Amino acid sequence: MQNPGSDPNVSTSGRSSRASRRTLLSAALGAGAAVAATPILGTPAVAAKAPARSPALTPEDYEAHGYGLTSATSGMVPVTFTRRPLRDDDVFLDILYCGVCHSDIHMARGDWGPPVYPCVPGHEMVGRVRAVGRAVTKFKPGDLGGVGTYIDSCRTCANCKRHQEQYCLNNGLVMTYGGYGDTILYGGFSDRIVVRDRFVMKVPAWADLAATAPLLCAGVSTYSPMQHWKLTRGQRVGVIGIGGLGHVAVKLAAARGAEVYAFTTTPGKVADARKLGARQGILWTDEAALQELTGSLDLIISTVPKAYPMQQFVNLLHVDGTMINLGAMDELQGISGMVLAMGRRSIVGSMAGGTREMQQVVDSCVRHNCYPKVEIISVQDLDQAFDRVISKEVRYRFVVDLSTMSR
Ligand SMILES: [Zn+2]
Ligand SMILES: [Zn+2]
What we know:
Blueprint: H1 18-29, E1 63-68, E2 77-82, E3 90-99, H2 102-108, E4 125-132, E5 144-147, E6 150-152, H3 158-161, E7 174-175, E8 192-196, E9 201-203, H4 209-212, H5 218-228, E10 236-240, H6 244-255, E11 259-264, H7 268-276, E12 280-283, H8 287-292, E13 297-302, H9 311-314, E14 317-325, H10 337-342, E15 346-349, H11 355-367, E16 374-378, H12 382-390, E17 397-401
Parallel strand pairs: 10-11, 10-13, 11-12, 13-14, 14-15, 16-17
Antiparallel strand pairs: 1-2, 3-4, 3-8, 3-17, 4-5, 5-9, 6-7
The chain binds zinc ion (2 copies).
């Protein structure tokens, strides 16, 4: 069901005039992202013919096959388990693609505390709906759905009511895998999943499905802070780390009309940054380039997945500038209180995004063919993929094709 013209490895910059694209993307990816617009590329394909009624599911239907770790050091091995029976507001998805996020590695290998083993990671899923519960109106069998980093929340607190469920005030947030729900929760490196409908995003039939998957974490994790801190056209934004999250951040910020400076430790990514839409790609060691940008950036999005010396980048913030830490979950190092105070600068954090933002970023990116760059792998390649994520070889997101799972 993919549009043959939508190649996830093709940069958006070669498709049409950058100026007109930016105008359209900026309108769609800015504060009014929910507003409908005409697709600018491709013709929407006709949705798959699907039965309107859900089939009756047998116990065998709930038997899932996945790949996961049985200990922090086991490596990925086949795991079989049972998904929960379909509730009235549940959606049963056959998973088609699942992205590989750096946090999958942190979680599965116990970097953030031991998960429940066996741990089947994966929280960037796109799948096809096989069945829905009786109360579900948003999906029918044959539709496409996306699932991100969490699968439930209390749904009644003030933050859930305003669709910022990732900050559920009642401790109701349920991450996609690594802990317990009714039983152990398993993620998207598996062939099927059952999720409450509110936490399943609609994916258009004409989407590039493999390239849509990373939008469910990398996409919304960078889109949400751009919305919250109101990144607008003409602002100067830094993106630190050009990896899975960082390369999406560069694309989304450029699409909003921001002037993007991308900072990397990898010489080979300096040129890539410009192709992704940055005004400049800069090596961390390029002191002259950093000096030139001192005091000039409105916003910095830090996607580096561990603590690092941040001060050299905090120095780049303008008065009232904000550094948003997305990746480092350990102690931040060596920040000068003086530099923060003298320019009323802030260092803040942000996690994932709400369900409304998740739907917005999927809709906008699909509509405007603004996709992450992905490399599709087999489920058997996951160990090697984890190593290549850690060694920064991936360009820029691995996505597992779940049709490679043997049953
Ligand atoms: Zn993630
Ligand atoms: Zn809540």
